[in-house]
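Incident review: delayed structure delivery

Summary: a single-chain prediction request sat in the queue longer than the usual turnaround. Root cause was a stuck worker, restarted by the on-call engineer. No data loss occurred. The affected request and its eventual output are reproduced below so the record is complete for anyone auditing the incident later.

Affected input:
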Amino acid sequence: MATEYEHEGIIYHEPRPRIVLVNFPSVINEELKSRGHNSVVCGEVGSTPIELRFPQPASEVDILVFRDSNMNPGRPESPSPQRNFHQNAKVNGVGFTFQLSHYVQELLSRGGVCVYLIGYDHCHLYNRSGLSPGIRIDISLSPTKSAFRIAASKFCEELTTFIKRWKTTPLAMVGFTAYQSEHFESLIQDSSGTALAFLERIPTAHSKPGYLLCLPDYGHNPEILDELLSQVLPSIAQHLFPFRHDLSWLKEKDFLSPGIAELEKEKETARQEVNRQISALDKQIETIQKEEQFLSDLLTSDGDKLKLAVKTGLEVLLGHAGLLVPVLDVDKDSALRDGATPKREDLRIEYEGNVILLNVTGREQFLRPTSLNQISKHHRLFPMSPDRPLDKLHSLLIANYNYGKGLDPRKRDDMFGTGTAEAEQRLQAEGHGAITTFDLFQLVRACLAKEVVLTQDHLTDLFTTVGILDFKSFKATLSAKA
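Output delivered after worker restart:
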């Protein structure tokens, strides 16, 4: 027999608010249900665009929790999310289909709560919900690497406590556009005052307002979600929890078991220590990432950024081979061009009579065989003298190619695409060489990891490559580091 609960003249058959989780795996829902929450998982239909199959119409839902991220925090308690919803995400409910924004607006207008856990600016659930403020595509920061402040909520102390407790947990926080409303309060701000999290009270036609809460993405941690649903939301939207009894006093020291109190202290100490260790590790990671940014630039950039990355990579190789010679930037110094106005090669290396002319190029598509015209031209323009014999002059093309749309360099195929055989034949005939920036990346990475021993002879072989470098064969000539 069903039990009835009456509050303000309304008869309830279910005393707990009805919660729908969007973009969460079912295992998280089962965990929340075991903790007493009346939650269900939103399903999905199709591929592009994806339709969200809500188990109930908006009139039968009290709280929506969206995880608007397709990133896995990489923690054991955080299994991979289902999918990110792109395109014009639609709602497929009980006998109707319409835009996600309609579903969200109907829920808010009835005094419901929408919670968005937003981790990255390219996610779409918030954008497709027709809400303000918008997400700024130029702001995404890590809570362990960037400056930010937590603004105390004037409306809900429990919300501020919650944000402070989990302040280092998110992988990233996004910024929101400027927004003016008497019912809006910023909860987290970056150093320029941009809101990174906020709470907005949504006035409705009746006495029960709706609430929009946007927080960083905390992943799939059930402990965080449980605290959000059990402590924070009941303090914000009391009308959704009419039968909730505040038993928080049971956790105060007058009622808490001495053994539990001591364990809670140890747990908090352990949490602080783990956060300290994670912060220290993140700083070390950030330092290494900055030092090795040129390696990423080798695979993702063009123009001056690519040239600088190639220059840095070559300097690393020269250092490992014990060659203390500079990599000359010919573009920046006309004296290296003997005062000539037209630019020639991009970089140059000179040692023991060898002159290596380096042409650096980046192209989002495959290179064309005609790209070799410039190499031949620069080779002819280089002024020779008796102390620099012709057989000591060599031209080498270093290219980042087919990198459009962030294509993995392992999947880019041959450098010149269908024209590779023609390019190889021409390089062999003219005595020039070509290598990819991915080859350079792999060699520098192997040296930095101390996996190989690189000698001066090895570098000379590399610099005087004729044809397109076969990196696998070249690497086989290097001695493994003992």
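Verification: Residues 258-291 form the longest helix (34 residues).
Action items: add queue-age alerting; document worker restart procedure.
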